[in-house]
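re: ur msg from earlier - yeah i can do the 4'-deoxy-4'-aminopyridoxal-5'-phosphate complex, just paste it... oh wait u already did. ok heres what im feeding in:
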Amino acid sequence: MYDEKGNRYLDCINNVAHVGHCHKDVVKATSDQLGLLNTNNRFLHDTLVIAARKLVSTLPEPLSVCYFVNSGSEANDLALRIARAYTKNKDIICLDHAYHGHLTSLMEISPYKYQRGKFPKRKYVHVAPIPDGYRGVLRGENNSELGRMYADKVREVIESAVGEGRSVAAFIAESAPSCAGQVILPPDYLRNVYRYVREAGGVCIADEVQIGFGRTGKYWWGFQLQGEDVVPDIVCVGKSMGNGFPVAAVVTTKEIARSLAATGIEYFNTYGGNPASCAAALAVMEAVEKDNLRENAVKVGRYLLNSLKRLADKHTLIGDVRGVGLFIGIELVLDRETRTPATNQAQQIIARMKEDFILLSTDGPDRNVIKIKPPMTFNTENADTLVSHLDSSLGEIAAMASTQEFIENEPKLIKSEDLTSIKR
Ligand code: PMP
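and the outut:
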């Protein structure tokens, strides 16, 4: 990326420019389509069918019915509507610190937003703990039972909701929670959670808006990391889908889709599935394949993760390095024993790296997790540049007075309460 002065930046955070900024095939396919036809979706066009077929081909059976929308928020909102139509229930289980979109219906199931603002928690929303083995309520990154133990927490949430006479429509979660701090779900988590949710009469929604389309490398979709038998009932995709052009989608099963049709309320979306958006989406999926971007995510992701783990040997500020493919988090702590979040230091590093023309961001409940989610064209040379600048920035911070003095005496630092206003 370049700024108005022509400075060149290394973009380590833009998961919308998925196949690379201004990918020539995506630009051509979209502009060719704009030159041919772009209209609302009452007029059928073959690009919609071709893009839907392509999307479905990346998903396991029986996920085969696509609804095209314009944003991740629209996708998640429609998913809730479909889940409620199918189950005839209302309640939603979400994860703590989750973000699912900016619509009212989604703010209500996004503790990431409502806990920070004045938005009240609704009675039909039930929040399960984030399954984070490093900072969560249950810890132990190497505990093979962790996934089951966190799934039990969801079961407890379901039991308590049912005990209050409520009934579950859906469980919604990112298949690798990003806003909650680049968390990788422990093995056996979704398998068990999905079972409990279905036993309670609900459906399972995978929010793949941030991490889908191959970001995690080996698979197209994050939920696939949890095993071949782990298949959600509804999948929501967006962000990277159009490489910046607005397009998103909901994919579900025929059986579930029929229940929406049976409500008698037509699903209509003027721009959802317009020809240019579908051309962009199709070109993005083709570019992921043609440019071997999933393979690249595996290779470069592994290389970067290993380099960052080596940095952790040198800098005690790094408490944890985790990730899969090109979805990586570096959690900064003041003390490795107490795991006290190094929020100010994380902000300082982001600011320092920007001076070096490297774009990063932070997230997690304490905003102390450095997020790495670059365009999928990120290469090992880019990884080396990132790691060497991070090394210097971490060194600079360590060279300052003791961490405590650093927090107290540095007036420029951002206070954690101010961080709510910082946009992702
Ligand atoms: N789900 C997740 C996980 C997201 O990160 C976002 C956007 N940051 C959304 C949904 C909402 O997508 P949009 O901004 O396209 O409405």
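cool cool. Residues 408-424 have pLDDT under 50 and may be disordered. ping me if u need the other ligands too
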